[in-house]
Amino acid sequence: MVQQATPWTWTVSNILEATGGTCVAGGSDTVFGSIDTDSRAIQPDALFVAIRGETHDGHRFVEEVLSAGIRGVVIAEAEMERFPILDWAGRGIFCATVPDTMHALGQLATFTRRRWGLPVVAITGSNGKTSTREMTVSVISKRYRTLFPERNFNNEVGVPLTLFRLRPDHEWAVLELGMNHFGEIARLTRMCEPDIGVITNIGPAHLEGVGSLDGVMTAKGELLDEMAADKPAVLNGDDPRIRVLAERAVQKILMYGCDETADVRAEDVASTPDGMTFNLNLAGTRVPVRLRTPGRFMVSNALAAAAVGYLAGLTAYEIREGLETFRPVQGRLNVRETARGIHIIDDTYNANPGSMAAAIETLQGVSKDGRSVLVAGDMKELGSGAADLHRDIGVLCAKSKITRLYAAGEFAQQVGAGAAEGGMPVDAIIIGSRTSIATDLIDWLEPGDWVVVKGSRAMGMEKVVTKLLEWAGERSK
User: Which residue range is the domain that position 28 belongs to?
Assistant: First the structure.
């Protein structure tokens, strides 16, 4: 699904109408082919919006992009004095000032979304957002040309950059909304004005920013708070906190899950050597589905995508085809088969207690009576309860009869202590660096073993996967 940049252009009047900004330089006849915030990869005909991020301030790069030939910028009003505005005016460079450039970026995205007017699906949740998004794209694309994020673009910069890629032949858009603090989902929802909202689950993620599971529920519930009352919401009926959100929602709710009361549900769920099977009950129509990815929680993600497909008017058979052609995103429960007969599950993209527990359950299911290994890196942004939550993962490993546990990071000792507390033999618990863990694994692994490698993005646990694949040799599928 190769997507190209939109051929739609931006005029000065479009930009000022969208942002409410003030033109301080340049004429009204300037036209831009795109909008960007990255000075390193900006196209020659683009408008540069100088946003302030967590680590960089785009205002530092304004002169650089203008020297490279960019003909227009949006800057913060408070930064005007640092720039030669009169010189820009003389050179025909367009400049608009706004109170807040990040807010202006969102306004430009909303302007784009409204101009195209196509249906938008917005997906949020503590776990499974990206897999659900990709499954939903796989389903919707069976009938419609669908816009979707190129990467993990789910924040106040990524969502606009995705919407700016809309083009005339797109018929649907599937977006992912992430958060690490209150108010972020609300802003993203107002920005993209979804026609269908999806919440996958409520779990212990980003506790540093929202404080508790109830805080997570409140933050994710902002999707429903900000969605239009006449737009449907797809909610996980197996999650008790999401049921609380459903009770107070004003939207029409389509529930999915394994519970018999769910509108879209999975029946006869079973694990297979290469994935999962289940019967999809879609408003009374039943079709068998075979997912090419392990993990019972992936069935839940598939149900969410199926529910969106149902609301979009697809048939049960189109939905099944979409689900069966789905393949996991890199670093998200990718099964890597090796020439040495060792199965490596690369789940290194990110981690929180809920997704870590799901990975352990998956490992337990695929390894069956064979040897199983969890390589766990730290889970970030958990706040004051981080140590206890890491200890709980160790306890769960022991209770799940995982053969061997490796832990790396600031909280590795807590993971190991929890495993020992749960009854795992001490010699099966190894604390170390990514390099020492990979070295030990290479000495210990045998054909038939299953290994899951997982940790938060900042831990770089994919380096363990790379080392193991270099040694074991990845087998082509």
Answer: 10-104
